[in-house]
Every structure is written in structure tokens, then in C-alpha cells.
Amino acid sequence: MIPAPFDYLAPTSVEEALAALAEHGDDAKVLAGGQSLLPVLRMRLNAPEVVIDLGRIESLRGVRDEGDVVVVGAMTPHSVVASDPLVAEHAGLVSRAVEHLADAQIRHRGTFGGALAHADPAGDLGAPALALGAQFVIAGQGGSTRTVEADDFFVDLFETAIGEDELLTEVRLPKHTGWGAHYEKFVRVAHQWPIVAVAAAVKAEGGTITEARVGLTNMGSTPLRARAVEEALRGQPATEEAVREAASRAAEGCTPPSDLNGDADYRRHLATVLTRRAVLAAAGA
Amino acid sequence: MTRISLTVDGSKVADDVEPRMLLVQYLRERLGKTGTVVGCDTSNCGACTVHLDGTSVKSCNVLAVQADGAEVTTIEGLATGEDLHPVQEAFRECHGLQCGFCTPGMIMQSVALLEENPQPSEEEIRLGLEGNLCRCTGYHNIVKAVQQAAGQGAAS
After folding, report:
1. Which of A202, A206, B12, B96 could crosslink B142 through cysteines, CB 3.0-4.6 Å?
2. Domain ranges across chain A
């Protein structure tokens, strides 16, 4: 299938893109890497009148160091993020999640900001972004810019804090230098969306976990923080027994979906198992 | 209609296209490059893989207008005259195909994989080809072909 007809705009600056959004409003859809949007358009699940392609805006690409944060441009392809040394050193959890996101071809084309703005609860980037306390920089009309904390960014299924006439321009990842990180994804077959996945970043000193950040993928309508687990891990030894005990609280407060890949109870169970594996791997235990 | 100009398999081309035209449609229907095939049409199977500015992409999941100004290489641009590309040669040697439908995409992704990682382990090959499906399930010889192309000759 091919998409329904649309007009195509390819602005070369954020200002131009925002002006196009202001002009076309509801009728427009923003195209980043297109790896989720194009299938949606081709299946005719959406038929915007105007497609605004951000692919020609160079300023939205790249990774840079800014003091205590690593800044990732919204249009930076996954493959670039996956091999970026700054991200690897200071936000290893993102590296771990992005390196096995979808497949190689999609990682070449799909973008960091596009995937986060799409906000698929089964997407691989929400949980690590949430766990690391990412900040989302959103450009609005009239040259305004606002920064939204990860806790407020994911609103609901495929819904974020980005307004209809706004654009996500960059994601700021607070440095977690020296933290161990692991992304544990459970799939039945290659190239599948995670049935459940767990993102864990752990700071350990002398075999004791001093701090932990745990994010859950596909355990609700948005990515979630497993705060009960984080709390329970603090001050615990990085041992199988202690981590198992803490991880047993992973699904607290979650209302995961039920589908052909597993019902909600199965997902709750998976979350505890994957959390134990992710935390132990992150702690190097 | 939107005017695009790009380089495909070393030749400069320019056309007016509908913005909704997919890159794979453009390659096949406008340029007659039917070596690139459409398999699943849902961006899963990878049969339509081509190189866009040096990296592998699924051409059913890229608009032709997004390729404006870019350099595209298809399976038809891989050989040099009568000389097959080493990866093509390896697929032939190792019988890395059964029905052959996934082969153009498998070869294009294998070339990209070896450019990024010239000495992949077997696991890295299998992960690198994760986005390419062979419905004959002929993966074993495909992996051997990639190993052979990487100079890991005695793959048995």
C-alpha cells in the first residue's frame, strides 16, 4: 500500500518548520525518520494533508557535551546514538537500549527524538529516558522554548507533552558516569516489539548498590519507573538474593496490556524476572 | 509533484514525483530497477534494502522525496561490469539462497554489515541480518556466505 496523497514540506530550519506547523495545524504531521510514521501512512491509519519533513534541518542532528548533561539532537539517527562515545560513557543505559532497537536498517533511518515523540509504550527508548531523568526541549511559536521533565513528558498511549504547534528539538540526558547499565528485552522472535523490557542503571560501591534507576517498557500506556524497586535496592548488596527480593516489586502499580503475546499477569511476572536480570547485569554481578 | 534529483547506481537521475511515492516504487516503476523487490510491504522483511548515502535502509519505508540529493545504491549497482561484488560471489559460492526472493536485500544488508564490522562473529552476523527475513529459512548458508565474504573462508 502507498500513503494517501499529501503535500510535502521540507523546511531547513526549526523556525520554518514551526511556521509550517502554525499554518497547517491539525492537518499536518511531522516526519522525523519515518520508520513508524510511514507504515502508519501506508496502512492509511492516518492521512494528513501536509507532511513536514525535518530531515533537512541540520541543527537537529548530533550529540554534544554540555557540562553535566549529554545533549542528543532530536533528529540524530539511532545508529549514531548507539555508537556515540559520549552517550556510552555518560548515559550507557541509552546505548544499551538503542543498540538492539528494531533492526540495523531501521536504526540507520529512525531518529532518537522521533521515537520518543511517537511514544509507543512498547518502544525501547522511553524507559531508559525516564530512568535517567531525561529532559525534553520543546520549541514553540514565537521563538519560545520550554523544557519538560521525563516524568511529565509521557502523557498516554502515543501521547506526549509536545503541543500540536510545537517541536521536540533535543533531549538532555543527565550524566550517570560510572553507573552500570543494562537493558533486558523479552521477545519471542527476532525483530519483535518487546513484550516487556526493563532498563536498569545502577551505582554500586564495594558490592553495595547505593542508587538504582529502573524503567519499564510496555507495562502500561506509557513507560514507567519502578520506584518501589529503586527504593528497595538502595543500600542492598548486589547479590542474587537481595536483587530478587527488590525486583519482586517491579510490577507494583502497573496495569500492563493483555494481548496475544501475553496477558497482564504474565507481563507482571515477566517484569519481576527481567528486573532481576537487568539489575544484576547492570551491577556487574 | 515535487522535483527530485539523485544518483542511483552511479547515474544521475531527476524526476517529478508525487510526495507519497515510496523510494522502492521510484526505483522499480520509474527507473526499472526491479532487482530491488517488495516483499512484505510493511517494513519488516528487508527484501527491499538499498543503500542511501552509504547506509542500509528499507526502501519501502523511505519516501522518494526524502532521497532528493542523495546517493542510492541498489543490488543492480553492486557488481563492477561482469565482476560480481565479493558478497554476491560468496552468496553464489555458499548457495546462500533457495528461492532467491530475499537475496537482494540480504546481500545489500550484508554489504552494509561488513562495512561497519569487517570481522563479525556468527552472532553479530545473525543480529546484523535481523531485519531480513528468508521465508525458505535458508539462514544457515546465508550466514556462511557472509563469513566467507569476510575472509573467514573455512566456514563449514
Report:
1. B96
2. 7-53, 61-174, 180-282
Contact A10 B65 (CB under 8 A): yes
Looking at domain B2-77, its CATH superfamily turns out to be Beta-grasp domain (3.10.20.30)
Which residue in chain A is spatially nearest to B3 when comparing CA positions?
A8
Nearest CA in chain A to B55: A108
Does the ipTM surpass 0.90?
A: yes
Helix/strand/coil (H/E/C) assignment for every residue in chain B? CEEEEEEECCEEEEEEECCCCEHHHHHHHHCCCCCCCCCCCCCCCCCCEEEECCEEEEHHHCEHHHHCCCEEECHHHCCECCECCHHHHHHHHCCCCCCCCCHHHHHHHHHHHHHHCCCCCHHHHHHHCCCCCCCCCCHHHHHHHHHHHCCCCCCC
Among candidate residues B116, B120, B121, B96, the one with its CA nearest the CA of residue B106: B96
We find that the CATH architecture of domain A61-174 is 2-Layer Sandwich (3.30)
Longest Cα–Cα distance in chain A: 61
What is the tens place of the pLDDT at every residue in B38-55? Answer: 999 888 999 999 999 999
The structural domains of chain B, with segments of one domain joined by +, span 2-77, 86-149
pTM: 0.96
